[in-house]
TrEMBL record:
This is Type II secretion system F family protein. It is a multi-pass membrane protein. The chain crosses the membrane at residues 6-26, 108-127, 133-150, 280-300. It comes from the Bacteria. Pfam families: T2SSF.
């Protein structure tokens, strides 16, 4: 492909893209529901001091102008990939302050980076190798989609690793809570002591539960909310067990010790299952690498002696 043709192709693609953007911006109309939404918004029932501060970009005007386009692109991504319900659930499991709209914006940015990389590779392949246009266009589109999918998979991986760290921290936290309650501390006092003396993902959830309890939520309800914010069965059983013990007056120290023992048994079972899977994986290098080398070292001297004798 000649440089003139490449330049014409790049100009055509850029012009078509600019026309599409301008057409979409001009075609965007504010709906009736969007016009009356500010006047019908429900007033918060709690103090605004407890609400998290909204995070804005350094360019608020650009944020307001691009927000409708980001919403439209988010709906397209929802049809192509994960649903909004799944994303909100994984963001909740991640425990960060990232909202659904912020994640969609990040996903679009990753897709734009993928498009840029794919375009650069396509131009390089077209100029150097003279590759046809259609495969290059398909490669660029796949690179853009790959960037968006990579951000979605990264969110899944981060949420899973956080849940695993919380499950690993559960036995120690339960033992410390049992010791504090046995020493005479109340439930909230024990949680405060553990939150001050430990660090980790589960400690962050304990601090969040304490914040809900201090804001007026009953401790049992705050613990149930903690159980709803996790996918780990051991942590959910722990929070629900403590909540039931508080409601029914069961000795809390005994419940905490039992929860810690159950968590350690569950971790031991998972470790044994992981060891069994790794054992099968370790057979691959033994069979295909170590065993052939051993056979070669055992047979080669005899083959060499036979060749010398002949």
């Amino acid at each position: 492909m000649s440089p003139t043709a490449v330049g014409a192709l790049v100009g055509l693609v850029g012009g078509v893209g600019l026309c599409l953007v301008l057409w979409r911006v001009a075609a965007r109309r504010i709906t009736l529901s969007e016009r009356i939404a500010p006047y019908l918004r429900e007033r918060p029932r709690t103090s605004r001091l407890l609400a998290e501060a909204a995070q804005h970009t350094p360019f608020p005007t650009a944020e307001r102008l691009l927000a409708p386009l980001v919403h439209d692109a988010g709906r397209v991504l929802e049809r192509l990939g994960s649903s909004s319900v799944s994303i909100r659930r994984r963001l909740q499991l991640l425990g960060g302050s990232t909202t659904h709209d912020q994640f969609r914006t990040e996903q679009l940015m990753w897709g734009a980076v993928g498009l840029a990389v794919g375009t650069l590779l396509a131009l390089t392949a077209g100029v150097v190798r003279g590759a046809p246009f259609v495969p290059l266009l398909v490669g660029v589109i796949l690179c853009g989609l790959g960037g968006a999918v990579a951000r979605d998979q990264l969110l899944t991986s981060q949420a899973r690793r956080r849940q695993e760290r919380m499950a690993q921290e559960l036995p120690d936290v339960a033992e410390l809570l049992a010791l504090a309650v046995s020493a005479g501390e109340g439930p909230i006092g024990a949680l405060e002591r553990v939150s001050r003396t430990t660090h980790g993902e589960l400690t962050g959830e304990v601090r969040r539960t304490l914040a809900e309890a201090r804001s007026g939520t009953p401790l049992a309800v705050a613990l149930e909310n903690m159980a709803a914010r996790t996918d780990e069965a051991a942590i959910a059983r722990f929070a629900e067990g403590v909540s039931v013990a508080l409601e029914r007056g069961t000795p809390l120290a005994d419940v905490l010790r039992a929860q810690a023992q159950d968590a350690r048994e569950s971790a031991r079972r998972e470790l044994m299952e992981t060891g069994g899977k790794k054992e099968l994986g370790m057979m691959v290098p033994v069979v295909f690498l170590v065993l052939p080398v051993t056979v070669v070292f055992a047979i080669f001297p005899g083959v060499a002696v036979l060749e010398v004798g002949l």
